[in-house]
UniProtKB/TrEMBL annotation:
Cellular localisation: Cytoplasm, Nucleoid
InterPro entries in UniProt: YbaB-like_sf (IPR036894), YbaB/EbfC (IPR004401)
Lineage, opening ranks: Bacteria, Pseudomonadati, Pseudomonadota, Alphaproteobacteria, Rhodobacterales
A Pfam match: YbaB_DNA_bd
Keyword Cytoplasm part of the UniProt annotation: yes
Protein name: Nucleoid-associated protein SAMN04488239_109149
UniProt source species: Ruegeria marina
Function: Binds to DNA and alters its conformation. May be involved in regulation of gene expression, nucleoid organization and DNA protection.
One CC-aspect GO term: cytosol
Primary location recorded for the protein, binned into one broad class: cytoplasm
Keyword entries, A-Z: Coiled coil, Cytoplasm, DNA-binding
GO molecular function: DNA binding
Keyword Lyase: no
Gene3D superfamilies, sorted: Nucleoid-associated protein YbaB-like domain (3.30.1310.10)
Length: 114
């Protein structure tokens, strides 16, 4: 009969899946803005909070580090805490992406967006 219709049905299914993926990706991007991670340095003397998208949201500095005259050490601790928060943000974003792709039956190592 109509052997070609099976191909059209598969195509429609793929388009629906792509649309669903796009919707879920948009939601995940929105969610990453509200997920927070905290990076630390100096055994917790400096803490940087960032969104899972890597945007710096807050900085908490223990006042004891201001007793030192070593300004460079303080600056290094602040930078280290920010870098730690950014690394954790990237890790969190990757975890969320993996969770999303696996929930849709896509390969774990697929690179999105295309």
């Amino acid at each position: 009969m109509f052997k070609g219709l099976g191909g059209l049905g598969d195509m429609a299914k793929m388009m629906k899946s792509a649309q669903e993926l796009q919707t879920k990706m948009a939601q995940m991007q929105e969610d990453l803005n509200s997920m927070m991670v905290t990076g630390e340095s100096g055994a917790g003397l400096v803490k940087a909070t960032a969104s899972a998208k890597g945007e710096l949201k807050g900085l908490d500095i223990d006042p004891s580090i201001f007793n030192s005259d070593d300004k460079e050490v303080v600056e290094d601790l602040i930078l280290a805490a920010i870098k730690d928060a950014q690394a954790k943000a990237a890790e969190k974003a990757q975890e969320e992406m993996t969770r999303l792709t696996e929930s849709m039956g896509l390969p774990k190592d697929i690179k999105l967006p295309f």
